[in-house]
């Protein structure tokens, strides 16, 4: 099963590859047709005038509601002809957004992913597809960006060398857009899950309506003033970036507890240990690991090892000696718990992903199932 680090690396690598490939093709192939002087000037002027504010301005509403945000952009492109929106070159001169199918497809996707969020019973269905919705919106924005810059290669009098010209700016803009959407959507996802876990039945519908209202309001601001929309986007991004690390840990934690059991039902292989390791989360701060960190627990000759993978610094490990006594597993309705000691801070939480094979896993890792009143394997007594 892919980790978030592998997904992120593959995703940004694909962004780089797609951008380079697009620019290489546009730079190496001859122009499809000869444009007149007026058309050349128009194409170059369109690309130059798609400023940072026009590109980055709508990212905040798209991050809050990806499908609905792109639906609003397509609506402005298709129904804003003859209005002040023609001054926005990203919207008014983009064949992707102006295609009628784009508006109706994303409107349908908006309804399909929003309606389940109104109920606590159906909301997990939408949460399962949340990351797909986020990444598909990013891919759509990449297509929108590359279609706009594609006109430059056709409009220039001389062929452009591959990799020179708009590539650095395109790549920077794409990376900025992806980072912006991922950071804001991660924080939004955590709050959405907190609302779902609340005992009030109507709060989910209120949250979803509020989210869509804020998205529409920000898109309205963008329609009248991309610069003001960019300023609001920067403010929201700064706030979310300050909260990103703890929110990201909680997003991974909640997604694991809610989504992993469902995936394990669909793919039974996920209910087994991978490389002899079990995915766990520390309930409170443990050793040097912040609360809700994703850790990997495995058996060793002298006890157990907790491993925490890091993005670029390898992994850090912490030894749990068998001299401290056996690790006791407490099964729960929603989550399971491993007690390292009598302290609440020394507890590990893991999802019901391993429920169907918990006894076999406990035997393999020499854990104790406390709720059965007996040890699965003989306890490792202190020496």
Structural overview:
The chain is an alpha+beta fold and 383 residues long. The chain has two domains: 4-259, no CATH class; 270-372, PH-domain like (Roll), CATH 2.30.29. The chain has helices at residues 4-28, 37-49, 52-56, 59-64, 66-79, 89-92, 95-98, 100-114, 123-128, 130-155, 167-197, 203-224, 226-266, 358-365; strands at residues 277-282, 294-300, 303-309, 315-321, 328-330, 335-339, 347-351, 368-369. An eight-stranded mixed beta sheet has the order 4-3-2-1-7-6-5-8, with helices on both faces. The chain is elongated, with a radius of gyration of 25 Å. The protein starts with a helix and ends in a 14-residue tail after the last strand. The model is unreliable at 9-13, 15-35, 42-49, 151-166 and 373-383 (pLDDT under 50).
């Amino acid at each position: 099963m892919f980790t978030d680090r592998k997904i992120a690396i593959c995703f940004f690598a694909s962004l780089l590859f797609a951008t380079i490939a697009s620019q290489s093709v546009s730079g190496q192939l001859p122009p499809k047709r000869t444009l007149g002087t007026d058309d050349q000037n128009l194409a170059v002027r369109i690309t130059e005038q798609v400023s940072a504010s026009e590109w980055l301005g709508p990212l905040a509403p798209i991050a809050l509601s990806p499908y609905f945000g792109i639906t609003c952009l397509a609506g402005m492109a298709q129904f804003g002809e003859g209005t002040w929106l023609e001054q926005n070159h990203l919207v008014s001169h983009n064949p992707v957004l102006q295609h009628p199918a784009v508006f109706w497809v994303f409107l349908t996707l908006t309804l399909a992913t929003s309606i389940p969020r109104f109920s606590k019973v159906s909301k997990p269905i939408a949460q399962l597809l949340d990351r797909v919705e986020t990444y598909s919106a990013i891919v759509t924005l990449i297509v929108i960006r590359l279609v706009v810059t594609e006109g430059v290669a056709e409009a220039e009098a001389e062929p452009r060398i591959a990799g020179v010209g708009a590539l650095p700016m395109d790549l920077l803009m794409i990376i900025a857009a992806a980072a912006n959407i991922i950071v804001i959507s991660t924080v939004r996802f955590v709050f959405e899950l907190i609302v779902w876990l609340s005992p009030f039945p109507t709060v989910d519908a209120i949250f979803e309506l509020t989210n869509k209202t804020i998205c529409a309001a920000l898109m309205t601001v963008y329609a009248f003033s991309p610069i003001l929309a960019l300023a609001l986007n920067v403010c929201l991004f700064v706030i979310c970036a300050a909260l990103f690390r703890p929110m990201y840990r909680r997003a991974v934690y909640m997604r694991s507890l809610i989504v992993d059991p469902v995936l394990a039902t669909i793919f039974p292989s996920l209910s087994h240990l991978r490389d002899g390791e079990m995915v766990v989360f520390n309930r409170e701060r443990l050793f040097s690991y912040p609360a809700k960190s994703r850790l990997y627990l495995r058996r060793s000759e002298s006890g157990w090892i907790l491993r925490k993978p890091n993005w670029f610094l390898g992994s850090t490990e912490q030894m749990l000696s068998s001299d401290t006594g056996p690790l006791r597993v407490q099964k729960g309705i929603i989550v399971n718990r491993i007690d390292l000691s009598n302290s609440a801070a020394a507890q590990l939480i893991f999802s019901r992903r391993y429920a169907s094979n918990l006894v076999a896993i406990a035997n393999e890792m020499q854990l104790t199932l406390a709720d059965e009143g007996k040890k699965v394997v003989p306890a490792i007594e202190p020496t």
